């Protein structure tokens, strides 16, 4: 499970760089695309949080 967390963390860093880049070049299309990627990455993150809570018995 650690590799999944580190992979998601790395992807969030890349997405953050993409957001700043899209703002720097004033690209609305790139900003919306990268924002959609942020929302897409929320699914796996929510699953990992849920899986951790279930394994802890909460």
Structure description:
This protein is an all-alpha fold and 58 residues long. It is elongated. Helix content is 90%, strand content 0%. The longest helix is centred in the C-terminal third of the chain and has 29 residues. The mean pLDDT is 87. The protein is built from two helices and no strands.
Average pLDDT for all residues: 87
The number of helical elements comes to: 2
- End-to-end CA span: 18 Å
Question: What Rg, in angstroms, do the CA atoms define?
Answer: 14 Å
Low-confidence parts lasting 5 or more residues at pLDDT below 50?
A: none
- β-strand amount: under 5%
Structure summary, number of beta strands: 0
What is the helix fraction of residues, given as a range? over 70%
* Helix/strand structural class: mainly alpha
Net shape: elongated
Biggest sheet character: none
Q: What is the H/E string?
A: HH
Defining traits:
single chain; 58 residues; mainly alpha; 2 helices
Layout: helices, strands, pairs:
Elements: H1 2-24, H2 28-56
Helix pairs in contact: 1-2
